[in-house]
Design a protein that fits this description.
disordered N terminus; 256 residues; 4-stranded antiparallel beta sheet; alpha+beta; globular
Length: 256
């Protein structure tokens, strides 16, 4: 309402009712709802069936979408025939094609440029993770440590798992998105044989080998789960080889 109009109403003695501005929390909820609706529609349009639920976390510079009940009728048939690799290949092809559109949509909703996009699936539990990373890196300074786990010990455990799989990353950062969701960023982990495979166009094959290996090392051959003091519900993992960067999303069970 213009200031002049407010002034006139005040002189008239009439009560002034101004439009309520949305709080940051309301803005966040609206953003989460819009992103959840977009992802549900996207999956429904391309797979013939939408997910049963979508949970969204917006914590700049990260946008995380966890989907449940995501398995198309065609995929169900393929899985019954034990064609797991084919299902993953189809999803890989589709989401690589959709990456630019998804980044654009997330940028429009969030108001911040989303420049990279990651994804992973658990076909056995019909769940998936979509992760958008904004270009604004300074926001990573605003993360609190929402765990009783020792930060240094937890980071060392992640580094050790990486070292066993490939090599010690040049940097490893841990971000608590909430008390049940831990996001891990690693940069500079590729070894020369992996670079050679990527150069020769074997990215798909490299991911198929690395994904189960790294998850297994993190869960079974390090002290990572014990340090968290909680059961790990799911681990999602993806890479952007062109910038030698990887993200791991760890979902924890509720505290007993």
């Amino acid at each position: 309402m213009p200031n002049l109009l407010i002034f006139k109403l005040a002189l008239s003695g009439k009560p002034i009712s101004l439009p309520k501005e949305e709080t940051p929390l309301q803005n966040s909820k609206t953003m989460q709802s819009e992103i959840g609706g977009y992802v549900s529609t996207l999956i429904r349009e391309h797979f013939g069936k939408g997910p049963t639920s979508v949970f969204v976390i917006v914590k700049p510079p990260f946008v995380v979408v966890h989907v449940r009940g995501f398995l198309s009728p065609t995929e169900k048939i393929l899985l019954q025939k034990n064609e797991i690799r084919r299902v993953l290949e189809i999803r890989e092809l589709l989401f690589e094609e959709l990456k630019p559109d998804i980044c654009t949509a997330l940028s429009e909703v969030s108001g911040k440029e989303v420049e990279t996009f990651y994804y992973d699936w658990h076909l056995e539990s019909q769940t998936g993770m979509l992760l958008g990373v904004m270009s604004a890196r300074d926001a990573t300074a605003n993360f609190d440590w929402l765990s009783e786990a020792d930060p240094d010990a937890l980071q060392k455990s992640v580094v050790e798992a990486s070292r066993k799989a490939e090599k010690k990353p040049e940097s490893t950062e841990l971000f608590w998105l909430n008390d049940r969701t831990l996001l891990i960023k690693r940069v500079g982990f590729l070894v020369e044989i992996e670079r050679e495979l990527i150069y020769n166009g074997l990215v798909k094959e490299l991911k198929q080998v690395k994904r189960p290996l790294e998850k297994r090392l993190l869960l079974k051959e390090t002290s990572f789960p014990g340090l968290l003091g909680r059961d790990v519900k799911e681990i999602f993992l993806d890479w952007e080889f062109s910038i030698d960067t990887s993200y791991i999303l760890v979902l924890l069970e509720p505290q007993k």
